[in-house]
Amino acid sequence: GDSVTQMEGPVTLSEEAFLTINCTYTATGYPSLFWYVQYPGEGLQLLLKATKADDKGSNKGFEATYRKETTSFHLEKGSVQVSDSAVYFCALKTSYDKVIFGPGTSLSVIP
Amino acid sequence: NAGVTQTPKFRILKIGQSMTLQCAQDMNHNYMYWYRQDPGMGLKLIYYSVGAGITDKGEVPNGYNVSRSTTEDFPLRLELAAPSQTSVYFCASSDQRGQKNTEAFFGQGTRLTVV
């Protein structure tokens, strides 16, 4: 069945460091891909998305490119801030099935 | 626009008690989901529904029941609360009428403690 794999956390970075969180997926057909973020004590909210191969989603300085050839959707940010500390979830959705989430990656950014 | 509303936000139950977690969405979404999130862990799907009158089990359905009598509401029932059900519960909804690029919207969560 469909699945999403993310890099193990937790990840701890200094402010202004470069961030990469790896995400790979397995799916039949051509899913849409998403990154969600969960700030402490809150629910999940959409960070960015991409709907087809080679699309790049971007928001709040974060970017991810839909790579069909490597079945990946890695999240990147050039310079993280303390306010980026959160848990990040990669997810996929096909047309007629439920959303599939990865296990989440916890990010802590220290001043 | 309220989105997905969960009640209550916090609840403490004694072992063996029952309760219903409420979830309502006002976006006319066909899919609705219940997840639980244990400390430091990811989301585990409990139940989901693809439309009114239709529900299906997720990864961890034991100890829970759901119903979907309307498009808007998707309550989660705990019949005999156990300490293992201490968790944060999230309800979510999405519109999947052939449009795969619409995201899931989440409620703020219900923090449940069973003592």
Instruction: Give a short account of the largest sheet of chain A.
Output: 6 strands, mixed
- What is the overall silhouette of chain B? globular
Largest sheet of chain B: 7 strands, mixed
| Proportion of residues in extended strands of chain A | over 45%
Low-pLDDT residue spans of chain B: none
In words, what does this structure look like?
The complex is a heterodimer of chains A (111) and B (115). By secondary structure, chain A is an all-beta fold. Chain A is built from no helices and twelve strands. Chain A has strands at 3-6, 11-14, 19-21, 23-26, 32-38, 44-50, 56-59, 62-65, 75-77, 86-93, 100-101, 105-110. In chain A, strands 2, 5, 6, 10, 11 and 12 form a six-stranded mixed β-sheet that branches. In chain A, strands 3-9-8-7 form a four-stranded antiparallel β-sheet, with no helix packed on it. Chain B is mostly beta strands and 115 residues long. Chain B has no helices and eleven strands. In chain B, strands 2, 4, 5, 6, 9, 10 and 11 form a seven-stranded mixed β-sheet that branches. A four-stranded antiparallel β-sheet of chain B has the order 1-3-8-7, with no helix packed on it. In chain B, strand 4 and strand 5 (43-51) form a beta hairpin. Chain B is globular and about 45 Å long. In chain B, 34% of the residues are buried. Chain A binds chain B through residues 31-32, 34, 36, 42-46, 49, 51, 89, 91, 93-99, 101-104, 106, and chain B through 31, 33, 40-43, 45, 48, 90, 92, 94, 96, 98-101, 103-104, 106-109.
Any chance you could write out the topology, listing elements then pairs?
The complex is a heterodimer of chains A (111) and B (115).
Chain A: E1 3-6, E2 11-14, E3 19-21, E4 23-26, E5 32-38, E6 44-50, E7 56-59, E8 62-65, E9 75-77, E10 86-93, E11 100-101, E12 105-110
Parallel strand pairs in A: 2-12
Antiparallel strand pairs in A: 1-4, 3-9, 5-6, 5-10, 7-8, 8-9, 10-11, 10-12
Chain B: E1 4-7, E2 10-13, E3 19-25, E4 31-37, E5 43-51, E6 54-57, E7 64-66, E8 76-78, E9 87-94, E10 105-106, E11 110-114
Parallel strand pairs in B: 2-11
Antiparallel strand pairs in B: 1-3, 3-8, 4-5, 4-9, 5-6, 7-8, 9-10, 9-11
